[in-house]
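Sequence, please.
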């Protein structure tokens, strides 16, 4: 497994194509959820890619604080269907959390989690905040990871 972090400007055309293709394959096609994937956050984000044998297996987007979000967030978390059940999602999230804490100084990390994945995120140290909501017609819940001093 190859684990790499990229700024938007350092992504090659091929890597950018691969990550968008994976996001569309899972979020748009598999989950039958048409939504605007190019939402303006990619240009400012850190892109975490895990690949195996030249094939993108998992991806996450680390979004810095901005006007509508006070804290770092992790989004577009996705594992290719053929690689699920192999703890790659856990590996992906652990690297994302470590990057934000150790290199970006994050003390709080926010995610918008699909509710069926709450236990997965709880096991990584995230805790739900507030009530559930629909995002693109899929049940979600806001969750936070907070560094305890």
């Amino acid at each position: 497994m190859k684990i790499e972090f990229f700024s938007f400007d350092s992504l090659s055309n091929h890597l950018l194509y691969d990550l968008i293709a994976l996001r569309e394959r899972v979020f748009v096609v598999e989950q039958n959820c048409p939504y605007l994937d190019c939402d303006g956050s990619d240009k400012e984000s850190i892109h975490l890619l895990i690949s195996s044998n030249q094939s993108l297996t998992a991806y996450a987007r680390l979004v810095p604080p901005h006007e509508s979000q006070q804290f770092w967030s992790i989004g577009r978390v996705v594992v290719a269907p053929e690689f699920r059940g192999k703890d790659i999602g856990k590996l992906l999230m652990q690297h994302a959390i470590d990057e934000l804490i150790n290199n970006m100084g994050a003390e709080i990390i926010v995610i918008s989690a699909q509710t069926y994945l709450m236990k997965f995120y709880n096991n990584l140290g995230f805790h739900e905040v507030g009530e559930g909501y629909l995002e693109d017609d899929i049940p979600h819940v806001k969750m936070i990871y907070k560094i305890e001093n």
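DSSP finds three helices and seven strands in the chain.
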